[in-house]
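FAQ

Q: What does a record look like?
A: Structure on top, sequence underneath. For example:
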């Protein structure tokens, strides 16, 4: 725009100044995306961290006004959390709905370094749902540099660990229920559980219950609202369970509410087997015995 056009815009009552060099139409709906875009335009910034996570629709990420800018750039963005960086390559940049944003891989890395507790869930989500190669995540982290970067070593170890995994749990609910099943097995209260156990249907297709006890044809499915709230996901869950019902399996749904509080392991006689030191073994005479079926994945 020419200087005259800018002067007209600045003096026109139909427009309001949002940030330096950025104006918004008076009366237009004000949205989070609009505010984020204004900040990116004013600071020549890129939406990052939780802002990028929300734009990429990553699970359990609340939208925030958060951006990255070059280390030496001086900018004031009221209401924004501003991160400074010396490393952003073209491969780390994307646009979503017109907003400049860090790539999915870079976003997951930034969030994992900022909030280490979320790293396992984020990495597993990208692998299981978004089909992001582990090699790409490792590549971008190593390109950023791990030396002296808080949490980078632990994240690199996590990625290396995942390279040796054949299965990828994609929700905190599923991970918590798997721990309950293993604790019950160690205490001798339940048979050995098998996770994502392969069940071949009569027509040759395969289904994988989250947690399975194949000797009694019983499986448990973690129904996380985050990953099962859409109509297609819900329909897929119903179809999978019907397929397993047809093969004689009992499928028990497990929701977040059922495992929200600490779980106590209680025997059939009412005895408590979850003392201060963890699950208490019932002893050899009470332990279930089972041998892993062919093809089972623990």
């Amino acid at each position: 725009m020419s200087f005259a056009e800018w002067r007209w815009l600045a003096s026109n009552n139909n427009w309001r100044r949002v940030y330096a060099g950025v104006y918004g139409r008076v009366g237009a709906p004000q949205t989070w995306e609009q505010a984020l875009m204004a900040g990116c335009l004013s600071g020549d910034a890129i939406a990052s961290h939780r802002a990028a996570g929300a734009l990429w629709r990553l699970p359990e990420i609340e939208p925030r006004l958060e951006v990255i800018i070059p280390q030496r750039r001086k900018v004031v963005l009221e209401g924004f959390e501003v991160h400074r960086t010396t490393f952003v390559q073209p491969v780390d940049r994307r646009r979503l709905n017109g907003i400049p944003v860090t790539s999915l891989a870079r976003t997951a890395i930034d969030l994992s370094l900022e909030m280490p507790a979320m790293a396992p869930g984020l990495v597993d989500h990208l692998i299981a749902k978004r089909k992001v190669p582990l090699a790409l995540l490792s590549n971008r982290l190593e390109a950023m540099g791990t030396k002296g970067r808080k949490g980078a070593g632990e994240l690199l170890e996590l990625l290396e660990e995942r390279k040796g995994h054949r299965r990828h749990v994609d929700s905190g609910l599923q991970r918590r229920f798997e721990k309950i099943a293993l604790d019950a097995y160690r205490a001798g209260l339940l048979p050995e559980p098998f996770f994502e156990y392969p069940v071949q249907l009569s027509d040759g297709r395969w289904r994988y219950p989250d947690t399975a006890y194949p000797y009694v044809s019983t499986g448990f499915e973690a129904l996380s609202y985050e990953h099962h709230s859409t109509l297609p996901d819900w329909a897929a869950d119903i179809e999978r369970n019907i397929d397993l019902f047809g093969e004689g399996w009992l499928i028990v749904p497990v929701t977040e509410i059922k495992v929200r509080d600490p779980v106590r392991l209680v025997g059939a006689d009412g005895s408590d087997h979850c003392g201060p030191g963890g699950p208490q073994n019932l002893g050899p005479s009470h332990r279930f015995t089972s041998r892993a079926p062919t093809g089972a994945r623990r």
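Q: Is there anything notable about this one?
A: Residues 273 and 280 are 5 Å apart (CA to CA).
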